[in-house]
Amino acid sequence: MTAITIVSGSPGAGKTTLARLLAARDERGLHLESDPFYGFPAHPIDPTTPASHVQNSAILTAVIRAATGFAEADYGVYVDGVVGPWWLPLLGRELAPRGIALHYVVLRVGLDEALHRAATRAQSTDEGAVRHMHRAFEDLGGFARHAVDTSGVAAEALLERVTARLAQGDFRVELDALRGDTRRQ
Known about the structure:
Blueprint (H helix, E strand, L loop, with lengths): L2 E7 L5 H11 L3 E5 L19 H20 L3 E5 L7 H8 L5 E8 L2 H10 L6 H10 L10 E3 L5 H13 L4 E2 L12
Parallel strand pairs: 1-3, 1-4, 2-3, 4-5
Antiparallel strand pairs: 4-6
């Protein structure tokens, strides 16, 4: 079955590294970064604010539609982005009618490590945004089983752990069961 894997979590959790490694391991793997989509609006709204809901909805819809196009062409798509569980109903509405499976992996790391990682990468992330999104991912509700702690874990070890759990279906989201509201930021 065709599938899209979302690799999510707060900034600095290791999303890009893991998504890139997962795609490289897949013979038809494709790594789709969501961050560039946030640069498309000519007058962007800070995506961490409630005022950005319409913008964020449009951007995530565009990301999932791009991912869907590649998945329908038989690519194994690995999307990395800050996609909280509150956005899963929106993604489900896009994917369910197309028969595309969704796997949702949430990477977690301690706040200090997230701040350090975000500050030391080539394009550092604003500390306030890291703190805000780190808090937003503290309570995953019914998606707590999708969390993977990346604190002090080497990239290759994380890849092995996540690959094994993907193969077991641990991260699969039942799209028909998704209910909810996408207004939370």
